[in-house]
Amino acid sequence: MNEYLKKIIISDLILLDKPNSFFESDQYPWDLIHSISDLFSEATSSYGSIENVMINDSNGPVLIDKTAIIEPFTVLNGPLFIGKNTLVKSHSTISNTIINHNCKVSGEVHSCIFQPYSNKAHEGFLGNSFIGSWANLGAGTTTSNLKNNYSSVQVKWNGKLIDTGSIFFGSIIGDHVKTAIGTNLNTGTVIELGCNIVSQSFPPRHIPAFSLFYKDKLMKIKFDDFCDTAKKAMQRRDMTLSSSEKSILNSIYKNC
Length: 256
Known about the structure:
Layout: E1 14-15, E2 18-19, H1 29-34, E3 53-56, E4 62-64, E5 69-70, E6 74-82, E7 87-88, E8 93-99, E9 104-105, E10 108-110, E11 113-114, E12 119-120, E13 125-127, E14 130-131, E15 136-137, E16 142-143, E17 154-157, E18 160-163, E19 171-173, E20 178-179, E21 184-185, E22 189-191, E23 196-198, E24 206-207, E25 211-214, E26 217-220, H2 223-235, H3 243-254
Parallel strand pairs: 3-6, 4-6, 5-7, 6-8, 7-9, 8-10, 8-11, 9-12, 10-13, 11-14, 14-19, 15-20, 16-21, 19-22, 20-23, 22-24, 23-25
Antiparallel strand pairs: 1-2, 17-18, 25-26
């Protein structure tokens, strides 16, 4: 895995509920987003009858695990994967997206990848974005995935400004990131792991790991406070923060 990616996600990349080696070839998250449809090249639709849910697989297969819950009046457009024990809430519209296991998703979602155990449980648009594990996006959190002048989106990555080569790209949201209600994220925003974003205007397009952004200021979160919040969030899913995970996170924290 790209060394800088360890400031975004600390575990294996999961795609279609399985470990995947995509990042081992030094490719970027936006490359992955642009390649979503390719990940379904050998797949065929697999889902049961779901009452009052519209499923359209004319543009790509739709795969829904039998343990997933899809609430009524939802529109699902392929290619699409919804993993084990994932909840999609009523009136959602989701397309060209991979939602791995144990997530909660609502609203409009297009061309996104959710790592396991992340929540976007309320309204808001999420487009062309990568979301790490254990993220929680507050109600109304919305990404911009297209600039007003239609120019190519650039991303600050490992200290360098890199052109994604596309006019469509939203945000990279790391493991254990929390956003407050009404958070708006600009095109090409990178939020490294362990951050807490509280803002009624656009926060910076790059936020370093373990940062609290509040009242237009960046402050480093105390590691013990971060761990306390992470443990509480994980306990809600009957999971624990392991000593090995804590050690990895602490190593990243010390080098931030």
